[in-house]
Amino acid sequence: MSRLTPSWPPVEVEPPVAHPKAPAPGTKLGVHFDECFGCGDAHEAGLHLRSAVGESQTVHSLFTVTAAHQGAPGLAHGGLLACAFDEALGATVGNLLRKPAVTGKLETDFLRPVPVGSTLHIAAKLDGVAGRKVYVSAAGHLDAADGPVAVRARALFVIVGVEHFTTHGDVEAMRKLADAHEKAKKDRQDWEINP
User: Fold this and answer.
1) Which residues contact 85 (CB under 8 A, 6 or more apart)?
2) Which one of 68, 88, 139, 191 is separated from 128 by 20 to 30 angstroms, measured CA to CA?
3) 86 backbone dihedrals φ, ψ, rounded to 5°
4) Whether 194 contacts 48, CB under 8 Å
5) Any residues with CB less than 8 A from the CB of 117 and at least 6 apart, and which?
6) What is the pLDDT of residues 36-87, one digit of tens each?
7) Percent of the chain's residues with pLDDT above 70
8) Spatial contact of 16 and 128, defined as CB atoms under 8 Å apart
9) What per-residue confidence (pLDDT) applies to 191?
10) Which three-class secondary structure string do you get for the chain?
11) How far apart are the first and last CA of the chain?
12) What are the beta bridge partners of residue 50?
């Protein structure tokens, strides 16, 4: 049983509708930005989260806990687990709705320890949309998609314009993202819209 507050979404919402160009179920999702701590490859101790689109507006992500991710000896740091869920939930919003969005609120419910060497199978789903607000939730299963639930999370994401990133982000990082977009277009690959 979850210890998160009972009403979710906490406001009246519309059913989420996936964008017509959202990746199809079974599609493996790429890294949206190589320097992203959550999914990118530039950080050796990053989370290196890998995701794929599932059925019914879900995204399935894998996070393998390494020694670099521990808090207590031999156990994953709670903040890094929250980071993994933020990344998985954000990948769900960005890839299925194809709109740039940022985390407005993230709640986590830690149900059991997550040992170093284990893999969390995170199943995230869109729960509803209210204007610019997008509600998503996820469960993290230990070592198998049907393993015991170790962490539950839910979040509110807010859809923003690209100017949010150009105004508040690093100019050099935005240039790298634009360069990656141009390279992907030349390689005829799809580009993840959610920076």
Assistant:
1) 106, 108, 122, 124, 138, 140, 151, 153, 155
2) 191
3) -60, -45
4) no
5) 64, 65, 66
6) 888 888 888 889 899 999 999 999 999 999 999 999 999 999 999 999 999 9
7) 89
8) yes
9) 44
10) CCCCCCCCCCCCCECCCCCCCCCCCCCEECCCCCCCCCCCCCCCCCCCCEEEECCCCEEEEEEECCHHHECCCCEECHHHHHHHHHHHHHHHHHHHHCCCEEEEEEEEEECCCCECCCEEEEEEEEEEEECCEEEEEEEEEECCCCCCEEEEEEEEEEECCCHHHHHHCCHHHHHHHHHHHHHHHHCCCCCCCCC
11) 34
12) 62
Average predicted confidence (pLDDT) for the chain: 89
State the residue for tokens 């101790």.
45
The token duo for 100 is 């740039």
Name the amino acid, one letter, at 135.
Answer: Y
- Six-digit token pair at 115? 């040992």
| Partners of 76 in the β-ladder | 70
CB 139 within 8 A of CB 122: yes
pTM of the model: 0.86
